């Protein structure tokens, strides 16, 4: 039972990342009708926002400390961070320790700006083009962004630690009546799941309860009619593209301590996230979230040794097997609108 609960937690962790990325993909497809293969790159850029913030906060300068000598009796050079010199050693070290959460403040405007530039500068020219053209141009854009990150940050993963208070593990089993140390789970993964739930809830609340969101949902259902009412729906859809980029970026920022950022992490998540979108139903926001968590949990259980002993390699293909089964029996996906992907 404890192994099952541990895999369930792992599945919710993976599913959180899948659901956040798939949510942004579905927002873009549902509003603009664009298959955006550059969305994984936005997730990657978000992770490197955390890396950038960590490097910025740890910028340092050297001073001569006359009280410290080397073996020859010469005064030593001491490296000090600017943040600690400005705010004092205690507050400064705390700010550095919380670099990843602080990066959220930087990531939101950066990702929205990148989303605006992508949509206005490139993607708007492909609205009426076939999906194959959209896939090719956005995939090419993803490769360009990936290579830019590789040029400035290198090819190796960059460790980006979580704050000290979240670096340990939580004895989850004790809360459920199990023996101590039966179900140990990292604090930051629990934080990531909670953060994902908040972001997903905020996006749905924004679309459901705000006038802007209601207009966007109406535009997703019938773009021409909303336009005839005198509403500039294109402008609102551009803003939604920026919001979708911000959602992907925030997912990347908070994922940085879980998986050290590297230049190809966006591609690693992109294919799986597209499978999630298709399984959930193209254009269906609830379907994207449901499929994200469902496939994350299935992948986690498929990685158990007992399952892999029976079906070697099943953990690598389980998501695609489920996708094939669902699309053969229900081409529009779990919660897709009738007629979508069924022609």
TrEMBL record:
GO terms for molecular function: transmembrane transporter activity. It comes from the Bacteria. InterPro entries: ABC_transp_permease, BCAA_transport_permease. Keywords: Amino-acid transport, Cell membrane, Membrane, Transmembrane, Transmembrane helix, Transport. GO terms for biological process: amino acid transport. The chain crosses the membrane at residues 15-35, 42-61, 98-123, 190-216, 237-258, 270-298, 310-328. It is a multi-pass membrane protein. One of its GO terms (cellular component) is plasma membrane. The keyword Isomerase does not apply. Its main location: membrane. It is found in: Cell membrane. Belongs to the binding-protein-dependent transport system permease family. LivHM subfamily. This is Branched-chain amino acid ABC transporter permease.
